[in-house]
Amino acid sequence: MSQPQITAMSWIMVAALGVVWGSTFFVIELALPGITPSWLAAYRITFASALTFGIWRFAGGKLFLGPDRPWVVLALIGALSSAIPFILLSWSQTQVTSAFAGVSMAAVALMVLPLAHFFVPGERMTVRRTLGFLIGFVGVFILIGGQFFQSTGAAFETWGRLGCLTAAACYAISSVTMRKLPPVDPIGLSAVTLAFGMVIVVPFAWATEGAPPLPDNKTLFYLAVLGLLPTAGANLLRVLVIRSAGPVFMSLTNYQVPVWSVLLSVIVLNEPWHSSLIWALLLILAGVGLSQYGALRRLFGKANH
């Protein structure tokens, strides 16, 4: 397995993922009144799987680029990167505040750091990298403020919070596992892992919530958006970033999720913004810069030549 290669395109892809995933919780909130949680996850992953699989087949349909055929690992990644977290987050958002969900996604970065240290070559925990991630996490807490500690009063709120954190752990483990795969086609990897996820989610939804409902047109639109952008499109970008730049760099996306969630609320919903937003952004940017100092220095060093 080669060392992580962080390029200008890596930064662009991570920034794009931050915007897309930052809007995901917002769209899920809009879709939930028209559909049950598990079927929301099932429709979302089915849309994404069909689209990604079609693109992959059109591009040639090749998956393995070497002799290894790690089907069991691919199934595990499919479960951890889509099936389990999609189900958990869809249900948990009926029990917890969106602020808690946002912070729990930022925790992915802190979970990836020790996992990558032990299991991924070239991703060791240094003092500077660890300090950078902690500063970024503090920025996320400032951004969310007291909303993080607000209670919804839901009967299963504690389980909802555990569900969010479990989803974050699934994303962290799947990122590290994906980086360790042998050579594979990235589009094929995205398609196959989504297909494995779909095979898990659809029967689960049917068993727990009955036959699939027929959502109204507005809900179908939200489900299609969820399937197209934060699932199919973002999953492919996630695969590309992890396979090239590594899981630690990929985890920077999770600090952006609550930032974009708040910004979109201010811009789209005209919600008031507070000065804490500026301080939070500065801390998050400082944390990213400190943790990725070497990559930034190489990037701008090349740009000056």
Structure description:
The chain has 305 residues and is mostly helical. It is built from 13 helices and no strands. The longest helix has 29 residues. It is globular and about 55 Å long. The two termini are 29 Å apart.
Secondary structure elements and pairings:
Blueprint: H1 8-22, H2 24-31, H3 37-58, H4 71-92, H5 98-119, H6 127-144, H7 157-179, H8 186-209, H9 217-245, H10 247-250, H11 253-268, H12 276-291, H13 293-303
Helix pairs in contact: 1-9, 1-11, 2-9, 3-4, 3-8, 3-9, 4-7, 4-8, 5-6, 5-7, 5-11, 6-11, 6-12, 7-9, 8-9, 11-12
In brief, what are we looking at here?
This protein is 75% helix and 0% strand. It is mainly α and 305 residues long. It is globular and about 55 Å long.
List keywords for this structure.
13 helices, mainly alpha, globular, single chain
State the assembly state of the protein chains. Answer: single chain
Kindly report the average pLDDT value: 87
Task: Give the DSSP E fraction (strand runs of 2 or more residues).
Answer: under 5%
> How would the global form be characterised?
globular
Treating each run of at least 4 consecutive H or I residues as one helix, how many helices?
13
Largest sheet: none
What is the CA–CA distance across the termini?
29 Å
Low-confidence stretches: none
Strands, count: 0
Q: What Rg do the Cα atoms give?
A: 19 Å
Structural class: mainly alpha
Order of helices and strands: HHHHHHHHHHHHH
Helix content: over 70%
